[in-house]
Amino acid sequence: MDAVHHNARVQPEPPHRPAAPEVGEDLTLVWYPDGVVGAPYRSVPEDARMVLYGGRFQYSPHEAAFVLPATYNTSDRALLIQSAVRLLTAQGIGVNFRHATPASAGPPARPPSAALGTQPTAGTPPSARR
What we know:
Shape: elongated
Distance between the termini: 93 Å
Mean pLDDT: 81
Number of helices: 3
Helix content: 25-40%
Structural class: alpha+beta
Order of helices and strands: HEEHEEHE
Radius of gyration: 29 Å
């Protein structure tokens, strides 16, 4: 107990972490299933565009988005994203991440057809009576 009391008197208080900087704007980066990370052009704050270019993001006119191609390996991509996020937050731009919404499975299923072996009802076209 004496050692604990002594250390409490001698050692200073640990420093407290400063509050997070205030965010004036935000940017959402989307992780797509093919490994591309991107953000729609219109959602990227003007102050963030040069940071993304510097972080090797490319503007894709066909997608109207800034994208970080999947050609970078996983560790390089992580370092580029981390560097861009650090620079953006230093400018007061918050960064959010989310996964892209999965593509729909296609059109809704058709209602089940009549079971095999049942007789068609009156008014059924001849082509359906086979």
